[in-house]
């Protein structure tokens, strides 16, 4: 059975480092299956950065073997899952952080993407309260991110396709949060959205795929606002606000602080799209600006 789908191998087009890692990935997966006494139990799937292989453990437990592209956002995924200990999140069964390999309990493919968006926001807001525990000291800090963004947004030569007042607003927010003592200290997921909550057996829903930081709980909301953007369909102001307040209310967060982080993250997304893609997605950029405007109207 092929452990790495052709569609994932095609990501070798991302560059030489991706190509070299993908060349080694099949043998790495075979090694892990053997070392951890696993039996492959289905067809592999993948996202943008990791392949997931259904397996059975030596005692017959249904699990998945996840091996990810080595990058800093994933370097402490195992640590976050270990801290949560299955409380609100997928349970970690075994890990090899040096090889970016995780053995996880197997969940069902159903996620929150088909649920009414406001109801899904209420569920995710409830997860914030469960997952936001003291951060382990090994994590990178959100204040460091904010300081970097303040510098990058202030570069005179940068020309973002964003109203200048919004760029300066985002830069000011980043400067303030970089100096704010409450910006660090809490374990945050940072990428918690509709697709990263799966149906489980021991709990109805469980969170997957953290990109953890030591940060501020209010940082978490923005992905729930920009995902499923097409569903706003002509009512973006009301749609964004409905989701925003459902999240804030369910998690009992401060409205102004959550709004500020959302604005900053949305403008940073525009910056990232321009930096990372030779042909930036104009519709994505427009969506980010639209949500940033709607969340503060």
Automatic annotation (TrEMBL):
SUPFAM superfamilies: Protein kinase-like (PK-like) (SSF56112)
UniProt KW keywords: Kinase, Transferase
Domain of life the protein comes from: Bacteria
Molecular functions (GO terms): aminoglycoside 6-kinase activity
EC number: 2.7.1.72
InterPro entries xrefs: Kinase-like_dom_sf, NH2Glyco/OHUrea_AB-resist_kin
GO terms of biological process kind: secondary metabolic process
Protein name per the record: Streptomycin 6-kinase
Organism listed in the record: Nocardioides albus
């Amino acid at each position: 059975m092929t452990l790495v789908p052709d569609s994932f191998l095609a990501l070798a087009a991302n560059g030489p480092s991706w190509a070299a890692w993908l060349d080694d990935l099949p043998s790495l997966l075979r090694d892990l299956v053997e070392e951890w006494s696993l039996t492959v139990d289905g067809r592999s799937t993948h996202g943008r950065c990791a392949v997931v292989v259904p397996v059975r453990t030596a005692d017959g437990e249904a699990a998945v073997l996840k091996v990810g592209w080595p990058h800093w956002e994933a370097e402490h995924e195992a640590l976050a899952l270990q801290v949560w200990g299955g409380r609100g999140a997928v349970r970690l069964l075994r890990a090899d952080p040096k090889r970016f390999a995780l053995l996880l309990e197997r969940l069902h493919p159903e996620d929150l993407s088909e649920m009414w968006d406001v109801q899904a926001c209420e569920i995710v807001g409830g997860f914030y309260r469960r997952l936001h525990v003291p951060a382990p000291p090994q994590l990178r800090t959100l204040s460091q991110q904010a300081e970097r963004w303040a510098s990058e947004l202030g570069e005179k030569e940068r020309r973002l396709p964003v109203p200048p007042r919004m760029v300066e607003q985002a830069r000011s927010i980043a400067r303030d949060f970089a100096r704010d003592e409450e910006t660090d200290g809490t374990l945050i997921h940072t990428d918690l959205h509709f697709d990263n909550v799966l149906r489980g057996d021991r709990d109805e829903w469980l969170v997957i795929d953290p990109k953890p930081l030591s940060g501020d709980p209010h940082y978490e909301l923005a992905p729930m606002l920009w995902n499923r953007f097409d569903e706003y369909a002509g009512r973006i102001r009301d749609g964004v606000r409905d989701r925003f307040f459902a999240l804030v209310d369910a998690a009992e967060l401060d409205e102004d602080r959550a709004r500020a982080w959302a604005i900053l993250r949305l403008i940073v997304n525009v910056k990232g799209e321009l930096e990372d893609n030779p042909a930036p997605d104009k519709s994505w950029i427009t969506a980010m600006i639209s949500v940033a405007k709607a969340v503060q109207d």
